[in-house]
């Protein structure tokens, strides 16, 4: 069942492209138009069938019923005023950025029917070449309405994500950013630091443990510097919490305290098992 | 081609059991006898076909041509004197422990034909239930001879591991432990600390990043406390190196220094890509 007539996706990378593909596959949109800073990416998205056509300029949003902002964070923020001026009355706008407070405060001030979204479907692989079908199925998706969000807008976007198979959570942007600083941004910061600490010449003697625990450190540097900086205070706090845990383990080790060490590792292991 | 007539494996867990299976599959042993602290595990190993029979006591090593010590580190060390007394002349003994300096110094002093080995094939999954075929194929295996190691013993064990498909590296035990403190023990210490830092109630909003980067924190606590403590000084140094890297990232973030942050993340990402 069609939810929107014309959908414009700005940013046809992994998330934007996958969204296009999912919308088309489930017949949720009349037509899907894709825009990308890199024309080549948008053309590739079309060839793959993730979009119906490549928009030639930002003017494509003019008669859109839904605009999806799927670029990195700072591009979302700088695009917003340009889009706001061109939208038709009643047009819905969502973004899929990884941090929400900065985006939501900027965008909800200038776009009446804006709703912040964050499908937790990112990957260290970026770009449309890694586009997958149905990456939203079973994935958590956080919606971050404000006090001023029109309930009809919220309902329509809830319907959209649920049609894509996502598990929807509704949270204030501030709370979203606090939680994600621990469940996503901290692991990334740790992985970047971990691989930095291991000399390359020792890689031949590494096992799956190093490989798995640093996989996400090959994530895009520009994208992640923006995520980190846009959630700076929360991430600084998360890093401090992590540093305390690390110091606790280190001091048990320094003191040759096996009992304490086992206790720390057991608690950690039991917790990890609950993550599944 | 048979390399050994009678092989006794003490410790029929994931590594010991997989070794038995690989030896038998490739017809490298006349018979394989398995011993375990937990009789149930050894019986399961027999049922799976990883060993030919379950040894009833340590006396099983009496006429063994090869004894493989595949228990946790401290058990290897406490078993050694008991085994040393019973071995026939010319019997070879290897261990597959994750740290080598402590084991090699203790065992090479009392067992003439001992050689320390470390196949980097561990997993957070322990026990014979997770036993896999051919986990040694393509896996790095470090052999740690001392100045006194008989070259014939080294050659025979090299042949054994190469028949199992492992990529052999020969290193002094001390160097092995220094390298592994960075490529294996540090990632584990970091993963245990990382999962400890993330509140369980936020797990529903976690993505693959947290899952992957903490997977190894469900590793066995007793086993890993022994690994950490037996490589204490190296791991303390590795932790300090990691803490410095983390502080570098944290201060770039604190200073809102995007240029520096991008540089750190890019270097890390490029390095990670070389790990494959």
Short description:
Two copies of one chain form a homodimer. The first copy, chain A, has 276 residues and is an alpha/beta fold. Helix content of chain A is 51%, strand content 14%.
Account of the protein in words:
The structure is a homodimer of 276-residue chains. By secondary structure, the first copy, chain A, is of the alpha/beta class. Chain A has two domains: 4-171, 3-Layer(aba) Sandwich (Rossmann fold), CATH 3.40.50; 176-275, 6-phosphogluconate dehydrogenase C-terminal like domain (6-phosphogluconate dehydrogenase C-terminal fold). The first copy, chain A, has ten helices and eight strands. An eight-stranded mixed sheet of chain A has the order 3-2-1-4-5-6-7-8. In chain A, α3 (73-86) links the parallel β4 (66-69) and β5. The first copy, chain A, is elongated, with a radius of gyration of 21 Å. Chain A starts with a strand and ends with a helix. The model of chain A has no long low-confidence stretch (mean pLDDT 95). Chains A and B meet through α6, α7, α8, α9 and α10 of A and α6, α7, α8, α9 and α10 of B.
Indicate the topology:
The structure is a homodimer of 276-residue chains.
Chain A: E1 4-10, H1 14-25, E2 29-35, H2 39-48, E3 53-54, E4 66-69, H3 73-86, E5 92-95, H4 101-110, E6 114-119, E7 140-144, H5 151-163, E8 167-170, H6 173-197, H7 208-214, H8 221-230, H9 232-254, H10 258-275
Parallel strand pairs in A: 1-2, 1-4, 2-3, 4-5, 5-6, 7-8
Antiparallel strand pairs in A: 6-7
Helix pairs in contact in A: 3-4, 6-9, 9-10
